[in-house]
Amino acid sequence: MKQKITLKKIAKEFDVSISTVSKALKDSHEISEEVKERIQAFAKFYHYKPNSLALNLRNQKTKTIGIIIPQIVHHFFTKVISGIELVANKNGYNVMICMSMDSYEKEVLNLDMLANGVVDGIIVSVAKETEEKKDFTHFKDLINNGIPLVLFDRVIDEIKCNKVLTNDIDGGYLATKHLVNIGCKRIAILTTPEFVTVGKLRLEGYKNALSNSSMDLDEELVMQINEEHDIANQIKKLFAMKNPPDGIFAVNEIYAAIAMKIANKNNLKIPDDISILGFTDGLISQYTTPSLSTVAQHGYHIGQKSAELLLNEIEFQDTEYQYQTKIIETNLILRESTKKLNLH
């Protein structure tokens, strides 16, 4: 079975630029006959077909942008979509939304579908399974074929494209430092497996805050949640410890809400016996009992900035374009699930 061939692979085979390959396949007089014949024969042997959207973008626009998100149930992603739609609609663009359900294969399928002449550019938050597999070929091929891409929230360092991300380290630091400041002595973190970038960065902020507060890191208080198993049963282990935590920082509001439910079942008073602080100011945070203190992630602003970067690249993609990384700062929203800060 012959390998899937791209302009980049042909260029690498002959040690020439992608531009040279493109010109050779178009029978340009700028390329020598010998080089043209070799490149054309190689492309024919491997059944090379030019990407349809790459051609579309040179000729006409669809005035549609694609979005691929892991889940739509999370309040954060709905806010991001709202921000994208606002900017897109103002500029005469429509939005097409796909979900990867955190599946690598579904993300690849969605990307292939959108890249087949359906949209002018794509905004993506990477699936957890993709982060775990560390196979980013589909994104590299997209960029090599000239399709504008913006990654947001969960981004991949090695992919050269526009990116918009939360200052996750700072958010984790703010949350943990607040728990220290209100008197918590044993602060646990409910985080994701290490391959999920946002969880890893928020954990880094947690560790930094403990270190700067001269508090030792207790690995027993670092709980990496495996969402393929019962989340509540995993969190219950914290409460069953001989010396349980008096403060919990959860890297998302779902983990925080589950921790609050378990605390209530254990007859612990929140925040008197235990303070709990989450991440992302969604509806869950606002309507839990008691209401949840949280780190505001500003998904709406992330969506707006992602759309602005994508539309700018679509407009200027035929010129020398410089990719940008935008960092959106976080802040604390303090409610009833954490003790009041004693200023005296």
Largest sheet: spatial strand order: 2-1-3-4-5-11
What is the ordering of alpha helices and beta strands? Answer: HHHHEHEHEHHEEHEHEHEHEHEHEE
Q: How many distinct domains? A: 3
Cα end-to-end separation: 74 Å
**Number of helical elements:** 14
SSE layout:
Blueprint: H1 7-14, H2 18-25, H3 33-45, H4 52-59, E1 64-69, H5 75-90, E2 94-99, H6 104-114, E3 121-124, H7 128-133, H8 137-144, E4 149-152, E5 162-166, H9 168-181, E6 187-191, H10 197-212, E7 222-224, H11 231-239, E8 247-250, H12 253-265, E9 275-279, H13 283-287, E10 293-296, H14 299-316, E11 325-328, E12 331-333
Parallel strand pairs: 1-2, 1-3, 3-4, 4-5, 5-11, 6-7, 6-8, 8-9, 9-10
Antiparallel strand pairs: 10-12
Helix pairs in contact: 1-2, 2-3, 5-14, 9-10, 11-12
Keyphrases for this structure?
single chain, 344 residues, alpha/beta, Rossmann fold, 3 domains, six-stranded parallel beta sheet, six-stranded mixed beta sheet, 14 helices, 44% helix, 15% strand, elongated
Could you give a short description of this structure?
This protein is an alpha/beta fold and 344 residues long. It has helices at residues 7-14, 18-25, 33-45, 52-59, 75-90, 104-114, 128-133, 137-144, 168-181, 197-212, 231-239, 253-265, 283-287, 299-316, and strands at 64-69, 94-99, 121-124, 149-152, 162-166, 187-191, 222-224, 247-250, 275-279, 293-296, 325-328, 331-333. It has three domains: 7-50, no CATH class; 54-166 and 299-328, Rossmann fold, CATH 3.40.50.2300; 168-297, Response regulator (Rossmann fold, 3-Layer(aba) Sandwich), CATH 3.40.50.2300.
